[in-house]
Amino acid sequence: MTTIDVQNIETESVTKHGLPGFVFADDAVYEQEKEKVFAQGWASIGVGQQIEKPGDILPVRMAGVSLIAIRAKDGSIGVFHNVCRHKSAPLVDEPCNKRTLVCPYHKWSFKLDGELMGAPRFYGNENKPISTEDKADKGLIPVRFAVWWDIIFVNVSGDAQPFEEFIQPLDELLSEYPKEGLQRVSSTDYSGEVNWKLAVDNFLDGYHVPFVHSQACSIESALGQEDLFLSDDIVGLRLANGASNKPAKTAKQIPHWPGLAEEKMGTQQWFGIFPNTLFFVDPVWVQTIVVKPTGAAKTDETLSIYVTSEEAASDEYTAERARLSDVLNEVNEQDIELLDKLQHTRTSKVADQGHLVQAWDQVNMSFHQMWLRKMQSK
C-alpha cells in the first residue's frame, strides 16, 4: 500500500482536519520520527525520584533508543546509552540497584559514572588487567540530559537548543510554585496499542474530560478552559477554577502548595512539552506522564504522581495520597481503553474527513502543527 509522504501534508488541511490518519499507523513515518522528533529534541525518559538511592538504575526504551538513567554514589544523575562498549549488548533489562554494571555477554564492568572498570582477558593469553590507556575511550556513551520538576529530559543528538532556553516559557509561568518540595506518591507503567501522538493529543483535549472522566470535571468547569500557547514546543490548558469546582478527591484535603496565592488555589494547568512530556499542575498535586513510543502503534507510558511538600507526604495523609493515586490512575486507565479503540478508527481514510472545532481544538491543532514542522524540516 502506497502512503502519502509527510512533505505533502498541507498546513491548511491540518488546521481544519488535524493530521491525516496514516501518520498514526505508518511504520515509515515512525522511522522518520525517531530521528527528526525524538533524537533531535528534548524528550523525557522518566523521573528522578524513580532512581532515589545511589546505585538505582532505570532502563528506558523509546523510539528506537535504549538508555539508562543512573543515580551515582554522590547522589547525582547520569544518563547513558544502554550498550556495552564491546559489542553493544544491553547492560540492564529491568529497574535495579547495583554497585557496578556488568555486561551479561563478556562481563565487561562499568562504574556508576560510566567509566570502564575491567574487561576480563582483554589481552587474551596475557592475563593482566586492562590498562588505564586502553580503558580511556571505552566508557559508557553519555547522553545530554537535564532534570526539571523531577522529569529527566534527554537530547540524544546533542545539538538541541540549551534546555534552559527550551523550557523558559513554562518555567516563568510556574515561577510561583515551589517545585523543590515535590514528593513522589507513585509511578505506574502502562502499555497501549496506540500511536504516541494520539496519547499526547488526548491529554491536550479538554473537551473529552467531562464526558470520559466525569469523576474529574464537570462540563460547566470545562467551559472555562483557557488555551495556552507558550512557545513552538509548549502548549497547554488552564482551568481557573478546575480544582474548586469539582468534588473533592479525598475526604481530608491534602495540603496546598506552600505560599501559593489565594487566587490560584483552584487553578489547574496542564501542558504538552513536545514531543512526549505531559505535565499537570493542580493546587495540591502534580502529575507527569512520560510517553514512550516503541512502534508505530505501540506506546508505553509512565505516570508519576506527586504531592507538593514534606507535610503532604507525611503519615497523616497516607490514606489521602492512596486515594489520589487511585483516582488519577483510574483516569489514565479510561484513556488507555479509549485510545486502543481510537487507534483503529483514527487511522482510517474516513478519519481524514473529521473536523476540528474552533472552541475546543486549538491546542490539539497546535500540537499537530508542531509535529508537521519537525517532520518537514530539512
TrEMBL record:
One Pfam family it belongs to: Rieske
Keyword Nuclease carried by entry: no
Essential cofactor(s): Fe cation
Keywords: 2Fe-2S, Iron, Iron-sulfur, Metal-binding, Oxidoreductase
InterPro entries in UniProt: Rieske_2Fe-2S, Rieske_2Fe-2S_sf, Ring_hydroxy_dOase_asu_C_dom, Rng_hydr_dOase-A
CDD domains linked: RHO_alpha_C (cd00680), Rieske_RO_Alpha_N (cd03469)
Domain of life per record: Bacteria
Sample GO molecular function, one term: 2 iron, 2 sulfur cluster binding
Protein name: Rieske domain-containing protein
Organism annotation: Alteromonas lipolytica
